């Protein structure tokens, strides 16, 4: 089943549990620097928004990769990086208009959200329900107003 993360910034308390869960899932350590989701605070902490790969349909990162290190997981729909194929050229980081692919200097590779194989740990760990798992159409429609600004329509 195709999946997407549905993010509701109104529910985010900036507890960073999503960052800790993500880093633990992917590295075995609680290290937010190595998380594939980030919580950005705006207006001096008045608003927090979890931010990660939207698994967009256009997949600019996938198409830009010169060594085909980014592929689509058939079960989840996640665009995921094959670290064995990645050469660390960072072309995908430039191609992504959302800035959600990160170069990791300690590995010399890039990393992005892979939906944790279908059970995103950020959503599991979120105590307020600010991050949930949804089908891609629901998530896209729910997120668009947030990207456009309060009260805006697509």
Describe this structure in words.
- With 154 residues, the protein is an alpha+beta fold.
- It has a single domain (4-147), classed as Alpha-Beta Plaits, CATH 3.30.70.20.
- Helices cover 25% and strands 19% of the residues.
- It has a two-stranded antiparallel ribbon with strand order 1-8.
- 31% of the residues are buried.
Provide a quick synopsis of the model:
It is built from five helices and eight strands. By secondary structure, it is of the alpha+beta class.
Determine the number of helices (DSSP H or I, runs of at least 4 residues): 5
CATH architecture: 2-Layer Sandwich
User: What is the C-level CATH assignment?
Assistant: Alpha Beta
Distance between the termini: 26 Å
| CATH level-3 fold name | Alpha-Beta Plaits
Q: What integer is the average pLDDT?
A: 88
Strands, total number: 8
> From the alpha-carbon coordinates, what is the Rg to the nearest angstrom?
15 Å
Class from secondary-structure proportions: alpha+beta
Number of domains: 1
- Order of strands, main sheet, comes to 1-8
SSE arrangement, N to C: EHEEHEEHEEHEH
Label the overall shape: globular
Low-confidence stretches: 140-154
- Largest sheet data: 2 strands, antiparallel
Helix content: 25-40%
Question: Strand percentage, roughly?
Answer: 15-25%
């Amino acid at each position: 089943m195709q999946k997407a993360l549905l993010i509701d910034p109104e529910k985010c308390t900036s507890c960073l549990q999503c960052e800790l869960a993500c880093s633990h899932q992917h590295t075995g350590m609680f290290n937010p620097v190595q998380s594939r989701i980030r919580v950005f605070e705006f207006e001096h902490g008045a608003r927090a928004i979890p931010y990660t790969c939207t698994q967009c349909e256009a997949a600019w990162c996938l198409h830009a990769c010169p060594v085909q290190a980014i592929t689509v997981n058939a079960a989840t729909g996640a665009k995921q990086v094959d670290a064995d194929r990645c050469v660390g050229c960072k072309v995908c980081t430039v191609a992504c208009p959302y800035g959600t692919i990160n170069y990791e200097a300690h590995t010399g590779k890039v990393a992005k959200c892979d939906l944790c194989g279908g059970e995103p740990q950020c959503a599991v760990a979120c105590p307020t329900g600010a991050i949930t798992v949804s089908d891609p159409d629901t998530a896209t429609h729910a997120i668009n107003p947030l990207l456009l600004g309060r009260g805006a329509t697509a």
